[in-house]
Design goal:
Helix content: 40-55%
Structural class: mainly alpha
Shape: rod-shaped
Radius of gyration: 32 Å
Strand content: 5-15%
Strand order of the largest sheet: 1-2
Largest sheet: 2 strands, antiparallel
Number of helices: 4
Number of strands: 2
Distance between the termini: 79 Å
Oligomer: single chain
Length: 114
């Protein structure tokens, strides 16, 4: 609804005030909606990116850390072709370890040797 300037002055004189803020046209509302939708979709893709399963899963077994065993010892027993350092990093990733410190009796997931 559109008012003339005289009608607006009459309304304001009787205590009516214009609502402050931005009024969007139909095209403006559609643009804001689409922008929000694109932001939401981008967030979904970013958050879902970390949860994508790998195409091949390696066979794993669980072992228990014995007295005096280190992550290097365990990695060298399952590493292929002397790549023990790489296996240490892989074991840390598999078991969500921030460092190489182990506790006696701790259970670790390790790839099956072979």
């Amino acid at each position: 609804m559109t008012f003339s300037s005289a009608e607006i002055r009459l309304l304001e004189a009787n205590g009516f005030r214009r609502r402050p803020g931005v009024r969007l046209t139909r095209r403006g509302r559609a643009a804001v909606f689409l922008a929000g939708l694109l932001i939401a979709l981008a967030a979904v893709f970013v958050l879902a990116n970390g949860s994508v399963a790998t195409s091949h899963s390696e066979p794993l077994t669980t072992i228990q850390v014995g007295p005096g065993e280190t992550l290097w010892d365990i990695a060298s027993s399952v590493a292929v072709d002397g790549h023990t350092g790489d296996m240490v990093e892989h074991l840390k990733e598999l078991n969500h370890l921030s460092n190489s410190a182990l506790q006696i009796g701790q259970e670790l997931r390790v790839p099956l040797a072979g």
